[in-house]
Amino acid sequence: MMMILGIPAPLLFGQLMLGVVNGAFYALLSLGLAIIFGMLNIVNFAHGALFMLGAFTSWGLLNYAGIGYWWALLLAPLIVGAFGVVLERLFISKLYKLDHLYGLLLTFGIALILEGLVRNYYGSSGLPYRIPAELQGAQDLGFMIMPNYRGWVVLAALVMCLITWIVIEKTSIGAKLRAATENAPLVQSFGINVPRMITLTYGAGVALAAFAGVLAAPIYSVNPGMGANFIIVVFAVVVIGGMGSILGSIITGFGLGIVEGLTRVFYPEGSATVIFVVMVIVLLARPAGLFGRAH
Amino acid sequence: MRLSRRALLGTAAALPAAAAIRQARAQRPVIKIGVLTDLSGVYQDIVGPLAVESTRLAVSDFGVADKGFDVEVLIGDHQNRPDVGSNLVRQWYDRDGVDIVVEGGSSAVALAVAGVAKDKNKAYINSGGATSDLTGAACNANTLHWTYDTYMLAKSTGAAMVKAGGDRWFFITADYAFGHALSRDVGNFVTQAGGRVLGGVRTPFPGTTDFSSYLLQAQASGAKVIGLANAGADTTNCIKQAKEFGIKTPLAGLLMFISDIHSLGLETCQGLFLTESFYWDLNDRTRAFSERLWRRMPNRRPGMANAGPYSSTLHFLKAVHAMGPAEAKKSGAAIIAQMKRMPTDDDVHGQGIIREDGRKLHPAYLFQVKKPSESKRPWDYYNLIGTTPADEAFRPMKDGNCPLVKT
User: Fold this and answer.
1) Of chain B residues 151-180, which have a CB less than 8 A from chain A?
2) In this predicted structure, what is the pLDDT of residue B1?
3) Hey, which residues does B123 pair with through a beta bridge?
4) Is the entire prediction scored with pTM above 0.80?
5) N or C: which end of chain B has fewer CB within 10 A?
6) Least confident of A138-142, B225-229, B279-283
């Protein structure tokens, strides 16, 4: 058997592959966070809870309405996104003029309430959600068995990241959005409804989280704590990538997924910590993050 | 309305009598039971509301009306934090006059509460906690450990699987005290039974959601059994992902409850081995108990940690009745000693005894999860594979180093 650094090659390749899969989730979640922070200047701690809500919505669509995975992939982000719009209008919009800390506390509180409510109604041990029939089975890649569903997750995440990046960087809507973050009063004076644009941006960021939640539902058990497990790591990804940087969060998401995967081979106990070690190093060397601009 | 003088006098004469009756009722002693459990966290389904309801069922089955005392049940959430749990219990014992705490939380909470019970000379019966230290180095005269412990799980699942040919093990261990203890104990039984432990990984706790890389490592090690020394969502994620990645090596869930199987579904769990000291569909008595509980809280079947508080509360109330509520309220150590003197008998565990070190003895059952085609009705999940008799299921008293045991 071929060995690389004392590790059997199949195992190493397997871990790299898994790293990419996890990286896909990091990228999708941190992308939503980066958009929300970049445009609204809100550190959205409720992101994990909204991710969880996406997974629960797809479970609910299946079990209460008989709506399967593929429609859920479209509907759950819309439903949760609409919920995000309501949240933004009712609560978050009141905080734009205040310090970051208020937004952080508010969204953290919202996260706790959402998790508590779901836990109260559905219990803590989670609910089963099956992989859709079309994506069951696995491919034997020689060095590992690659479940079809995981491959789909990577593909879907990449496409979604690309679409988001194009919308923000290459379209006129994106241009207006970016202009509004630089100088809102000026953009408003051109007759563009900036508050509505901001509301919709929050909704879109939330919808991205819900989309990731639907993707995650068949992999992890759909349980109230699933978002809380991800959110801290995802924040680290955003900080490393550079707060508010779209491309940064995508690349860093995938990159850190791979770093984490490798750590699991060489020193499993450290796999939860390695991302934070990277974060500390990056903050020391480049305080604005790898792709961030210093203000 | 006009009152005649005679009627007025008559009423006045009756007043002291009415007051006396009221007083007599008020003086009927009240035994207070505090159910300390997880009502908001990851172990809510394993213990939680169903454990509270099984405690209430015990009170109702015992029937206090003709026993000369009343029973009041208080409920508290320890949030899986030892400080929260022990503060609440201190308040219960000091301020609210609670006589006994049942269920009592996971390992870390359990060890803290056992200390409080001893300080206040009150009684404590743990059901949900796993650590065998409660009847080992940390044992005391005010504490009983009821439903199961790490030793019982390790012996039943570990030894049985080696016997069935699973002689090479690889552990996926939650990286904290509980996981370390469990994989160590199981490892010992595996080696004693002639098996080998090939290795293991310690996964960060809490916060690990993806176990596929560890499962691939386990498979690459050439092990015949992958031992899951973790609990709750960690275990269910391991099982789900093993299925997804086509891991053929059999898994052993070292601490699993029926609520976990329910959450994962039989399709995913079929063939899995696990140990519980109770199964709702085990015999006529367990079925009768589960039906009574179902009427109080439908749609869920109890696992051992849900059912344990029924058994322990019932035995406690019998002991109170035997020694008299006044004596029982006086000293926690005395009521615990009384409980140890009496044999136990209830629908959950059948007949049993309590050892000097506070260990309740009953059989441990090794189950295999049914295939979907074998399951005939909801919650029909287990096939009974083997039974470890009560006197062998738990750690011998001499090996526990409990200070209460005189050698």
Assistant:
1) 175
2) 45
3) B100
4) no
5) N
6) A138-142
- B299 CB within 8 Å of a chain A CB: no
Count how many domains chain A has.
1
- How far A267 CA lies from chain B's nearest CA (Å)? 9
| Whole-angstrom distance, CA of residue B169 vs CA of residue B161 | 10
Return all residues near B98 (Cβ < 8 A) that are at least 6 apart: B32, B33, B34, B74, B89, B92, B122
Structure tokens at B99: 């006589």
Would you say residue B175 lies in a domain?
yes
> In residues, how long is chain A?
295
Regarding whether B379 and B259 lie in a shared domain, the answer is yes
Check pLDDT > 90 for residue B87: yes
Residues B197 and B62 in one domain: no
Same domain membership, residue B227 and residue B253: yes
pLDDT, tens digit, for every residue of A211-222? 999 999 988 778
Say how many Å lie between the first and final Cα of chain B, rounded.
Answer: 80
Residue of B nearest to A122 (CA): B45
Interface test mutation site (partner B, options A26, A125, A220, A223, max chain B beta carbons within 10 A) = A125
A225 — pLDDT class (breaks 50, 70, 90): confident
Q: Do A125 and B263 touch (CB under 8 A)?
A: yes
Q: How far apart are CA B211 and CA B232, in angstroms?
A: 14
Token reading at B107: 């390992």
Q: What is the domain extent for residue B158?
A: 151-276+364-392
Cα separation, A258 vs A256, in Å, equals 5
What is the distance of C-alpha B298 from the center of its chain? 20
Tell me the residue type at A104: L
Are B260 and B378 part of one and the same domain?
A: yes
| ipTM computed for the complex | 0.71
Residue B397 has pLDDT above 70, yes or no: yes
As a whole-number percent, the residues of chain A with pLDDT over 90 amount to 38
Query: Which chain A residues are closer than 8 Å to B46 by Cβ?
Result: 125
Question: What value does the mean pLDDT take over residues A202-207?
Answer: 94
Q: Nearest-CA distance from B31 to chain A in Å?
A: 30
A 10 A CB-CB count for B188 gives 16
The answer to whether residue A131 is domain-embedded is no
Euclidean distance between CA atoms B276 and B253, whole angstroms: 11
For residue B104, the domain's CATH number is: 3.40.50.2300
CATH code, A182: 1.10.3470
Residues of chain A found within 8 Å of residue B43, distances taken between Cβ atoms: 124
**Which among B40, B244, B260 has the least Cβ separation from residue A125?**
B260
For A141-165, the pLDDT digits (tens) are 777 778 889 899 999 999 999 999 9
Residues B141 and B158 in one domain: no
